[in-house]
Queue: 3 jobs
Job 1
Amino acid sequence: MTIYFFNDIKKDHSFLGGKGFTLGLMKNAGFPVPDGLILDSLPGENEMNEIFQWWDKNNNQKLAVRSSAVGEDSSEQSFAGQNSTYLNIEKKSELEAAIKNCFSSINKKSSALYREHFLGNSKGVMNVVLQVMVDPLYSGVFFSTDPRTGEKGWIAESIMGLGEDLVSGKKTPMHFEEKQTGIKAPFDIENLVSTGMKVRDLFQVEIDMEWAIDKNNNLFVLQSRPITALSGKSETKRIVEDEIKRLKTHYKKETVWDGGTFAEWSGPPSELTFSIWKEAFSKDHAFSKALKKLGYIGIEQEIENPDHSLLERIFNKGYINISMLAPFYFGPIPYRMILNKSHENKPKLVFDLKQMTFKTFILTPFTMWRMLKVGLRLSTERNVWLKECTKEMVAFNDKCFRVQDANFYKEYSDDELLKTFKNEVSDFYNAHLLWPLLLVTLIETTSQNLKALLKGIDTDKNIDLMINKWMAQGLHTVTMDMNNEYKEALSDKNKQIFFLKKFGHRGPGELELANPRWSELADKAFFKNMPKTPSKENSLSYTVEADIDALKTYKKEIIKKEWLLLKEMLELREKWKMLLLSPYSHIRFIALEIARRNQLGDLIFWHSYKEIEDRKFDLFVASKRKTQSELCKTISLPTIVELEKIEEVLSGKIPNKSNIINGLALSPGLSYGEVRVVIDPDNADTDSWPENTILVAESTDPGWTGLFLKSQAIIVSNGGVLSHCAIVAREMSLPAVSEIKQCHLLLKDGDKVWVDGNNGRITLAN
């Protein structure tokens, strides 16, 4: 091992990690950096003696032992607090223990999760910094520009004493900004700002600097690193404002969208993914054909306005415009779609005199007749459609073949490759999706029938809970079988081979074509440690039929029949999905081969399918689309979206002002979700959390990294804009708000809230 003293650090020592490297460079540039050294591995006896001699020269002052992992404190990731720090070391035995523990801290769970999330690799290389401690009167953090927005103007935060309570969020600090007038600080803030700006000029990048002022009013620089997650943050607010402006320009404020159909898209879909699915919901393609099979009108003409289609992007995410949907079922009718406020904001049709035109007046009798006819068919012919759907599935399975990766297409000529791509895409949106989408429609109708039969037996909310329980414990799907085989494969290498051969066309986030399939991930597809799964209560003895028999109603047999029909539909839908994702994976593999030949990388997925077919590749446009999509990940909306509601939340003009809680914006973005209050992160059962979890806590520290990864947004009582919580939230593109006093007591599990990280505002939705 080698000992590197700060005074010896030069520009070719970047392998020592961001913290140690920058401290050495600043020390040699004449900045007031406390003396220190860097270790690249655990020291032996001789090296420890050399360290003790250095310590003696520094009058055996208290030491800080801090991590300096490779990649830490870089312009991409801060690793803020992920690895260990030990302060106020006074004894030789304490120092030896602190060095050993600091080196081993790279294996901490939170640190490994952080590296896996950002770098795709849980392994890392650790160096350790030893530095003379400052006994601070004040300590704090200085940012040369606003890390939340990227706007010009420095920010500083400070507390009395050690800075650990500042960055951990345990204390709310004094806050200073360049744009404030008449700044009064209990220390020389002009010297702090001047020093911070000189550090910025040294590294020629906007910086985040930790500092301390001792009891003799001497300023010391303790650390400096580039501001992470800065690029694009000023764009987030602009994207929100531009999107609201676009929606208001092209849609009525009563417009309602439903994202439930595409709930499995994790985040904004890529251009390729969205363009294919959008085509499925256009004139005379899969969705329209499914409607016509059921007796509805279908989509018989193109929707001329390019800003209007049945499948649309709302903040770059996929939503069905259900305000436009009714005419595709029955034709022009004097009704419009609104949200049923009394029943979990479910959409419903209401009479609207404004929709009563001469055309709708003339066609109303025909519309009513069509409604009755379709309603009768849906009541009497569902079994016929199910049999036909099963027959089509068997035929589809017989002709379906599996491709494991892009290598299959390497021998194709360019023309053959594009022709195959065009055929696969066309077959998918035109034919393959027809029966699955028909099943989705039948499932929705049957679910509503079941709820209608149960109405009056219990409250609407309890009925929904009951049906959810039935679907959770009363179904046996091919996806469940796949999951069981996956669990078995985790500990058996031979079973992994068979699993990949059978299910390799599927994978995490499989509806997004930009995501790899299991066959591509190979060994990486299998976790080393199986995540715990909640056990089903009485799963062996429980049956839905027993639940139905226990109901106090004369409609038991009808309810049971309707449930069995719904069960058959849901299980059949999963079988279709299993098959459907095979040709869908082919589209990905062909796209990857086209990308390889044209040196496009993953930007192939940020071209529409028509652009690929026409060979119109534009890396600048594709890159811009990808960047905007990444920024939109900070925006999370409810399943059912109203234009009027989004605008209200963003403006804060909620009729009931008591529903708004103002705090401090830590990280930009807009997110809607369900609260989970956490007191102790070690006891949090994240497996039971919903996908749109809003994490609420008094404060957080790096040990909460795993919970951040499971959350859509963060709300905390304590912590400034420069705390660990704020830094990591910004790096992970999670909207975050602080200074919501007693939020861990005020908010309860299950509360629905909007988190506006742009304006530092929480809006209670329930």
Note: The chain has a mean pLDDT of 83.
Job 2
Amino acid sequence: MEIAERLGGWSARHRIAAIVLWLLFVVASSVLGGMAGQQQMSSAEDSFGGSRQAIEMLDAAGIEDPAGELVLVHGTDAGPVIAAVKGTGQAVRVKEAARSGGKVLVSFDWKGDPDEAMDHYPAVRDALAATGVRTETFGSATVDLWFGKAISEDFERAEWTAVPLALGILLVAFGALVAAVLPVALALTAFVAATGLAALASHQFPAAEATGSVMLLMGLAVGVDYCLFYLRREREERELGRSAQEALRIAARTSGHSVLVSGATVTIAMAGLFLSGMPMFESFAVGTILVVLVAMTGSVTVLPALLSLLGDKVDAGRLIRRRRPRRQGRVLPAILRGVIAKPGLATALAVAFLVALALPALGMRTELLSLRQTIPASDPLITAYEHIAAEFPAKAETGEILVKGPAGDLAALGEAREQNGLTRITIPLATEADLDRARAAIEDRPDAAIHGDLAFSDDYNARLKDAVLPVFAFVAGAAFLIMLLAFRSVAIAAVSVVLNLLSVGAAYGVIVAIFQHGWGDELVGTTGAGAVQAWLPLFVFVILFGLSMDYHVFVVSRIREAWRQGMPTRSAIFHGIGSSAGTVTSAALIMVAVFSVFATLSMQDFKQLGVGLAVAVLLDATLIRVILLPAALSLLNDRTWSLRRRPTIGPPEPAPLTPVS
């Protein structure tokens, strides 16, 4: 008896205990996480190379730069503005006023903790508005406020949009309110529990800013899908006349096993991010692994208990009249017959289409996106920045050379000042040429480092490039081995990896087309950034390799289930894909809906991530699962099942199949 069947059987027999234990686990995880608090990643921890050296030099000297703000005055008299800033009673220090083209730029620093500047800014904003002078503001406080508000509002919007969308799709899939609510409720409780566990883990692996959003995205998508697979199979078996106990046993043996394999694949794929040596990816990996493991555990434990408790009442609250069970339409069978009859032609056409989508990825340009690329171009904050940069370019994009002790000849490179034994030389740092000149100047000075956004982005990209090959190799190799163990077939394992690579390549191509070249960018409410967020290709690769196994494992399991009952391979392909089509379609729609919500959020990072994942899942559940997978397996025919020994790992012989009408 398999572990999924044992877990499901125990939970069904001890349903009250299983439900109570799950609720205690969710509450305990949440409470303990809240008590421990979340440890955020520091700037030094998320930096590399010379940029990290520069931050460490500032920390060692005990230097914490104050939060600075720039106020662009549209006029020649800055007196009222300066008086308004000073008159707020806030702890500010006006530094200077510069003039250019009939405008004045006032700069000031916030005294005290820089992280608290955004809390004091509203008072200054209101005072500036009261002067009647047209002003635009850009700086630490305004940027922090924008990101804080954007992340909070985006996170809330994602929750309140993605959850109803998933619920609506499940209502259509099951036609009953209780059956639709169960997967969403379990996914949300899994997310709550995983969030608490992630807070505890953050004391070992500090949390990146976007980790919570990534966990919500993955928790909803994976958690709902796992429960959907399990619940849909249990309902199918009941419709065939099985007893409640037998239906649960078959669901645990088949879909429960698929959930465990899929969860293990996502977990191992995400573990590959630890090979990157980058704390942000480690944070993403920890958060995703936790939410996937918790969702997987809930699907094979508390879900069987709830189904055992509810019985056929899971269909309570029926809103949609259910059609004859297991009846298929005409379109999918017609497509499958054509694909199985001419698999070579189907393979060639599908691969050609995916390769065409992937072609723009050959010119992919990655960089750590700047504020102007991350925040919508129409936002007043970016408008203010553009106006300041146009009138006072020297104030907009600068960096520093930091030197321990005297600067020597380096002092001639810019404005130098000594602070706590550290010499800080302000230099222009807006282009790669500026960065190259600065690096050439300090080439023989191990006591010097470059500090600034451009240097940080360049060092980050260099570290990222070193991480790509080991992570890609690990994830692809791990996926191959998991599929080999799950299905005892070299052919299936190889096909799985190749199909995943095709879907990832197509997703890359669409991301580049929209966000780098700007083709159709208005469709997702953005302006092409001219580049792809540096961390996104690696993260998308890992996520997609894990997520695609949701459908792949589920569909191939149904195909093998039919084959092991004596069907010829091609008949098993037809039966397996046909019988799983409804579940796969519902699961794919949920994932696409959740990811599409993220494509509507404010920040460019989330837009790119949402579009890439939504496109890949859509292709994966349609073109690949309906055409490429059956075509490839049909070409292999009986060679699909390359390892002939009776399996020792995987689900035992399933119950007899009922033909699809």
Note: Confidence is low (pLDDT under 50) at residues 644-661.
Job 3
Amino acid sequence: MSGADRTPADSADVCVIGAGPAGSLCAHRLAERGHDVVILEAGPRFSFEDRPERMERAIRPGDDDRSVWDMGGERDAYVSTGPQPYPLNRSRVKGVGGTSLHWQGMVMRLHEADFERRSRDGVAADWPLSYDDLRPYYAAAERAFGVAGAADNPFAPPREEPYPLPAFPPSYSDSIFAEACEELEITTHSVGNARNSEPYDGRSACVGYGTCKPVCASGAKYDATVHIRKAEAAGARVIDRAPVQRLETGGKGRVTRAVYATPDGEYSQDARRFVIACGGIETPRLLLLSDSPDHPDGLANSSGLVGRYFTEHCFAGVGGRLDRRTRQKHVGFNTTESHQFYDEEGVNPIKLELLNYAGPSPVEQALSGEEWGDALLDSLRDSYGTHVAVGGLVEQLPRKENRVTLDRTSTDDHGNPVPDVRWSIGERTRESIRRANEIQRAILDELGAAIEWTVGPDNTGPAFHHMGTTRMGTDPESSVVDPELRTHDVENLHIASSSVFVTGGAMNPTLTIAALALKAADHVDRAL
């Protein structure tokens, strides 16, 4: 936004860094309770009216997801030096709304066992809080998002109230899968979706554009601009295009100001409390950039664990073709899953997804092909509408060697070292992916599908869920933040992010991120 005032506020109770789901929810709750809140966001504001153009860009040949939200270049430079390459810019958005502008919108709660992985399975570590501690925050997050769901999942953790909106009905391809799953005694159920199945909170019901990831042009899918607007209505101030360069500390181990860059120069924002809500990559990067004589290894890093235990969800999938119509691509999100294998003994949690978007898109095929007229029509008829696929998320156990560090040989557009993402998976995680593939192949075999591809342990990729780089715990020597999401080392610094996850389970993380953000806001509110 040209001509915007990006000078600091004269006074602020809270400075929130990041305008994604965590930052927007935290800022809204605090502003609603009467606190002066300033939000600093690295990227720009995007116009809602531009979304149809961005949707077109998403399906145009030659473009990719990075171009839809203007990612890339010096601003977003990174390196990946781990055993497995990590394509970071395919998975994030910098701007007001954050990566929720880009996400698929699937939301579900972690299981009770996810908080007790060490106690129950003898692997990884336990969280310092329980599922019951987060239950009220999960419910509040579901209301905030407007989650569409149903109480038909026998494997789900206990809940205290119905979903705000009814679930989306099963798709046509779900009914095809249902036959095979019933024969194999695999229980299926609906998916929690942060998109409107009917009008909610001033937003329309889903109209089925099918480009949910990377852009929802109707606004039916939740994104963090919803709560940015609510926060601003409650008095919060949002400063965009203001990447924070470092946090500075004064006496008594407290952060005194956030130094941020703008197109017009560098400024600093003072506040009584600071909340970092920058996700699993930029949160540890900011802490490492904020080193000083008092914090030589980076801010809040006396444990040496800032950036450590970078964790992902691993994708597993099997796809093929049937000799009947499947109506693929009619729905741009999943409507049926199975959590039956989530708590299976001896392997990590597995979440099965019956995909509604298998195979090529006819739009992309028509735009990118060299055929015309009847020849193109014949090709489309041959390739479209017969594909099926079963996907899934598999938990990756945290590994200390997986980490986010600073690459001091490369710099961004402000001269700061870029993040270096180092990622790999261990043998138990590989075995869990093999188990997921086994179940997925059994379903397609039961359908009589000709299997054409498998994503397994040797070619798995990330689900783009960055977790674990400022993990939570009670011991300052083995964690970065405490159960109140406050850093052990710095009394007035809180972190609301997936970076505090101890383990990731196999559930999409955004609902848990939102629950933790609301919890952090309560603790900041009490501290003020």
Note: Residues 112 and 131 are 5 Å apart (CA to CA).
